[in-house]
Amino acid sequence: MAARGPYAKGVAKRAEILETALDVIARNGYSGATVREIADAVGLSQNGLLHYFGSKDALFTEILRRRDEVDDLAYGLRTGDDEAQLTEAMSALVTHNASVPGLVQLYARLSNEASEPGHPSHEYFRERYRSIRSLGTEVFARLQAEGRVRDDLDPAELGMLLFALLDGMQTQWMYDPESVDMAGAIDRFIALMAPAHR
């Protein structure tokens, strides 16, 4: 049974805020997307907007969480069945990220700030990194079992390295977007893992 009344309206408004914030940040960049601008776009005061999240950091954390959900659905990193699909999904995701630099900036800035255990976004990033390392381990273990990845490589380490490469490439790309080919670097990294006889 669907929720009704004020609770349902609150859930709907929160979802509207997150979708609007994704657009505003993608369009204007992290530094150019103020709480006031997001509030104006959804017809709320700044205090009214923050009422739904508690703080600016909590708002930005939920924006990133929503971005993860949207990207998971759009690019299927968790559903790819083989190496080709993984490579295509990763390439598509980093190509998409290049089209939304504001969200990449938000992720980079907040992930650095949240490294301190007391930061409101710390737990989100800690769980996110655990989740993507686990995903990488599962994918590379499967590919290894199918003979698509060398036997002498540790799937857990490969998963960690893949997402570390992705984060590092995004940082370099923010400084020099014309010279850094994020998708190409991911493709080449995955190709390095193939057995020599392939």
Automatic annotation (TrEMBL):
Residues 34-53 bind DNA. Residues 11-71 form the HTH tetR-type domain. It comes from the Bacteria. This is TetR family transcriptional regulator. InterPro entries: BetI_C, Homeodomain-like_sf, HTH_TetR, Tet_transcr_reg_TetR-rel_C_sf. The lineage of its organism: Bacteria, Bacillati, Actinomycetota, Actinomycetes, Micrococcales. One of its GO terms (molecular function) is DNA binding. It comes from Agromyces seonyuensis. Keywords: DNA-binding, Repressor, Transcription, Transcription regulation. The keyword Zinc-finger does not apply.
